[in-house]
Design goal:
By secondary structure, this protein is α+β, with helices and mostly antiparallel strands. The chain is built from three helices and three strands, in the order αββαβα. Strand 1 and strand 2 form a beta hairpin.
Length: 66
């Protein structure tokens, strides 16, 4: 049986932690920072863990856990 392919768009956007949780970037931080408050920008730093419902869907697209 051939290897399963990882969805290409998932590779750059998500990764797995050591315990198997899905790590993601915060939404709303790519552009348009002029209209956003400084507190919003500060809170969006770094990464966060995806909720269980979303993580279940995302794991289907990365079969080997990157």
């Amino acid at each position: 049986m051939p290897k399963m392919k990882t969805k290409s768009s998932i590779k750059g956007r998500f990764s797995l932690t050591g315990t198997g949780k899905v790590r993601r970037n915060h939404a709303g931080k790519q552009h348009g920072m002029v209209k956003r408050s400084n507190s919003f920008i500060r809170k969006q730093r770094g990464t966060t863990i995806a909720c269980d419902a979303d993580a279940k869907i995302l794991r289907q697209f990365m079969p080997y856990g990157r």
